[in-house]
Amino acid sequence: MSLVTLLPFIVLIGAMFLMTRSAKKKQQQAASMRSEMQPGTGVRTIGGMYATVKELGDDTVLLEVAPGVHAVYAKNAIGAVLSDEEYNRIVHGDTDEASDLPVVPDDASSLTEGADDAADAAQDAKIDLGKKDEADDAAEPKNGKADGESGAK
Questions:
Q1: Which of 39, 33, 83 lies closest to 57, judged by CA?
Q2: What is the pLDDT of residues 40-52, one digit of tens each?
Q3: Could you give the 3-state DSSP secondary structure of residue 59?
Q4: Beta-ladder partners of 68
Q5: Is the distance from CB of 77 to CB of 63 less than 8 angstroms?
Q6: Do 71 and 63 form a contact (C-beta atoms < 8 A)?
Q7: Statement: the pTM of the whole predicted model exceeds 0.70
């Protein structure tokens, strides 16, 4: 056999090797992440549920999904181990830094403050939307043409 005939097989075997190697790396990273779990750690399951680790078993984890509500999960079902800051930010909405976004009030009273001043200013600057007198319209033809004249060029 010539080298040209073997080349596709060599490329295919190399691609398979690289794919299995990257999959092994991901599995090792996931295993090391799961080994970092300790009671009290916040986690996210692969289903997207956030919970706190209560107990660790060999292959299982006891999670507190709500105060007083516990569930047993397989360790492989843990998608991510979260830092305390990230867990509190996501679950409890805690933020340490001041937000640049405006604070939205719970009631509409603050939205109407100053509306009286704005209404007074709007009345002062009213635009006259009324029709002109018909006598003014008859005296001034539009575009220099009297009624009934054609504007064909």
A1: 39
A2: 989 999 999 999 9
A3: coil
A4: none
A5: no
A6: yes
A7: no
